[in-house]
Amino acid sequence: MTLPVRHLPGSLLERPFPGLGWNEPVTAEFDELFERMNRLLGSAAIAPAALALSPAADMRDTDDAYVVEAELPGVKRDDIDIAISERELRITGDFKEREREGVLRRSTRRTGHFEYHALLPANVKADEVSAALSDGVLTVTLPKAQATKPQHVEISEP
């Protein structure tokens, strides 16, 4: 289905180009538009973290800890950094490219920097956090800080 095209008098296509006898778009206005778009896109620079890969991960909530399992196939222990703040877990590192012989014809493996961020629902005991890497799966166990448990308070008579 085609839609009708509407021409407005005085639009860019109907303005005469200086020095020529026929109607052409005014290039100065287009140049200004492109320059403004470039400035807008340049000011909204993409942060490097937004370009990082994010590994597949699961987060479980158990009675006494949060357990995060992140898939990091082929990543060595020394290439992973784990940081804990009050309520945030951050796992960063690099998927490194393997050295190969011959010509690489096709590759679907990920390479480059990766980051995983998780906001934790409650405070954790940062000094008791543990991590293990086995079969390409990083398991981070974050013990929960003990919150004040509700208690029954007796009301005494005066």
Write the layout of secondary structure elements.
Layout: H1 27-43, H2 48-51, E1 57-61, E2 65-71, E3 80-84, E4 88-95, E5 112-119, E6 130-134, E7 137-143
Antiparallel strand pairs: 1-2, 2-7, 3-4, 4-5, 6-7
Features:
alpha+beta; flat; Immunoglobulin-like; 158 residues; three-stranded antiparallel β-sheet; 2 helices
Give the DSSP E fraction (strand runs of 2 or more residues): 25-35%
Largest sheet: 4 strands, antiparallel
- How big is the Rg? 29 Å
> What is the ordering of alpha helices and beta strands?
HHEEEEEEE
How far apart, in Å, are the first and last alpha carbons?
Answer: 86 Å
Strand order of the largest sheet: 1-2-7-6
Structural class of the helix and strand makeup? Answer: alpha+beta
Average pLDDT level: 77
Alpha plus pi helix count: 2
- CATH C-level class of the largest domain: Mainly Beta
- As residue ranges, the low-confidence spans are none
Question: What is the second-level CATH architecture of the largest domain?
Answer: Sandwich
Within the CATH hierarchy, at the fold level, what is the topology of the largest domain? Immunoglobulin-like
Give the overall shape, derived from the CA principal axes: flat
* Number of separate structural domains: 2
The share of residues in helices is 10-25%
Number of distinct beta strands: 7
What is this structure, in a nutshell?
The chain has 158 residues and is of the alpha+beta class.
